Amino acid sequence: MAPCFSEERLTDGFFNGLRDHSRRLIAEITNLRELYPGITPSQLRKLIDPTRQPPVLPVKASKILGDFGGADAQSIAWLKDPVWLIYRGSACDTRVSDSPQQKRTQPVLDVFEAYLDVTDRRRFQTLNPRLDRDILYNPYTGRFMFRLRAKMGVPVVPLLGIRVRQLQRLLDFLEGLRRVGDQAVPERVTLREIVFSYGATRKRDSANQPKVRPWRVRLDLTKEEGVGVVLEKGNPHLRVINRLEDLVNSQKFYSLATYLTLSLPLFRAFEQLENAWQTAQENGRGSCFILHLSLDKHTIRFVLPGHQRQISLLIQPHEKEGKLVWEVGRPRHDPELLNENCEFNRVLKERVWTISGSGFKGLVTGAAAEPDEGIERLLVLISDAVLHLSTLQPATAPPQPPQAQPSQQVQQVQQQQVVSQLQPQAQQPRSAMPHASVGQQQPHGAPAPMARFPPQQQQIFQQQRPPQPQPNMHGGQISQPNMHGGPKPQLQGQHGQPGQMVAAPQQQGQRPGTGTAAGMGRSNAPLVVLD
Fold first, then answer.
1. 8 Å CB contact between 367 and 355
2. How far is CA 67 from the centre of its chain?
3. Residue 327: in which H helix or E strand, if any?
4. Rounded to whole angstroms, how far apart are CA atoms 247 and 216?
5. What is the pLDDT of residues 284-298, one digit of tens each?
6. Three-state SS string across 24-80, please?
7. How is the beta sheet containing 184-189 ordered, strand by strand?
8. DSSP 8-state symbol, 154
9. Positive or negative CA dihedral for 322, 325, 327, 332?
10. Tens digits of residue pLDDT in 441-472
11. SS3 324
């Protein structure tokens, strides 16, 4: 029996065609199984047409974005159904190596073309026809063409979903640029990067003001972990670049341009505050700290020399009469918000909170400013007011008068009080005192009675102390004459017995115990009878 294929038909062209046909079937089956999990072989045979050239696979847009792109139905309203996925053959990955030894091990890549039709072509008027080396846009027909590559046996549908999601994000960002108007100008827009500039324009009535430098922003869309934000050196928004990256990687990606243009005057004012307070800090007049709680809330803290001389002002956006304004003031939970005795409240109320100017208005306990030059003027006024306060002395408690030295009269009164305290001890009966011989000294180690007083008072007491009776040759004591010049008391004991103390004769009409103490003279000296 003759063979079906002669040796003349088994040429290189035959095997090349067989190879290409097999790769095509593998690519179609792989992507169909990715789109329809659980599909049976019989259903696959119905969906695959080997005679169709080139092989075309229709895919629903909601299927691509819903399962692989992470977008909802509302975000893909600009995309028509279906998305046409066409197989264009296979090729070797020449990026691996060009050496002859490794060409045999190079992976085989399946090449696809995806065609996407848009619903509204006016939305894409600002797009560059060549968004990327593998993405083209025809503004006349409103059709995108994606060129996709995937390893043989790997589905290309997930990669298509990622590219469509990138295109969706790009369109959202262009919509945000369109809302800003001429304040933000796109310079280069591709799926790999977006470059635009902002801050170059001013209001129409500010033609006499000097030109403002525009700031260029570059968004890197090639990072796997998310979109990267690259700012120029000296850009005021560099202080919040981390929060800007969080914004562009969130659902509010389109609001980046709007935020940068509205907040640029505020961040320029922050730069002016730091420059103004740098000199004050070097001179020891105070410090200024700026804290960014979020992209919408900022805090300015002024610290002056002295005890607890500091104030924190909160800056946050607020909608007033349908317009966006920046409100500046103390936080609502601040206990010093309504304190009229606070030095910061007094100077701010006098210089800022109760006045209005170009672009801002005082609110008694705060102020509201427009997002353009108004916020810059307001923060300059606040800074000048606090700087003026730093030149004044802090309000402290009135100084206590120095303790004056006691006068001579006060010293005499104190001395009399001490003498009066010593008199009761001397007026005690002799029997209550310890018996000691005349001239007997204090035992060794016992403190003298006057040792508890300072030396000055001891000398004064010695001068004011009445003279002590001198002992006679018989061991007794000789009484001193009366200091008041009265009659000399009789030196006799009771019942004429010598050596005993007797009471002075009581005067007529005098109560007992109110005159001279018993056994004591008017000079408080003890009376004894000589032998």
1. no
2. 41
3. strand 323-329
4. 18
5. 889 999 999 999 999
6. HHHHHHHHHHHHCCCCCHHHHHHHCCCCCCCCEEEECHHHHHHHHHCCCCHHHCCEC
7. 184-189, 193-198, 215-220, 228-231
8. S
9. positive
10. 444 444 555 565 667 666 766 666 655 555 55
11. strand
Q: How far apart are CA 498 and CA 481, in angstroms?
A: 19
**Distance between CA atoms of residues 318 and 333, nearest Å:** 18
State the Cα–Cα distance between residues 386 and 472, nearest whole angstrom.
88
Percent helix / strand / coil, the chain, rounded to 5? 35, 20, 45
- For residues 231 and 218, give the distance between their C-alpha atoms in angstroms, rounded to a whole number: 7
DSSP assignments along 332-369, one per residue = TT-TTTT-TT-HHHHHHIIIIIT-EETTEEE-SSEEEE
Query: Which residue carries 């109320």 as its tokens?
Result: 349
| SS3 state of residue 98 | coil
Q: CA-CA distance, 167 to 250, in Å (whole number)?
A: 15
Report whether 360 contacts 326 (CB < 8 A). no
What are the distances in angstroms from CA 288 to CA 96, 303, 330, 375? 56, 6, 15, 17
Minimum mean pLDDT among 18-32, 69-83, 392-406: which range? Answer: 392-406
Whether the per-residue pLDDT at 308 is higher than 90: the answer is: no
- Alpha-carbon distances of 166 from 173, 253, 345, rounded to whole Å: 11, 12, 51
Task: Tell me what percent of the residues of the chain surpass a pLDDT of 70.
Answer: 65
Minimal CA–CA distance to 88: which of 107, 114, 63? 114
Segment 32-39 long-range contacts (CB within 8 Å, at least 24 positions apart): 32/57, 33/155, 34/155, 34/157, 34/158, 35/59, 35/63, 35/157
CA proximity to 235, closest of 184, 289, 194, 199:
199
User: Residues 127, 194: contact at Cβ < 8 Å?
Assistant: no
Tokens 């009265």 belong to residue: 486
108 and 92 Cβ atoms separated by less than 8 Å: yes
Residue pair 377/359 in contact (Cβ under 8 Å)? The answer is: yes
pLDDT digits (tens, 9 = 90+) for 129-156: 888 888 899 989 999 999 988 888 888 8
Token pair of 207 as six digits:
């033609």
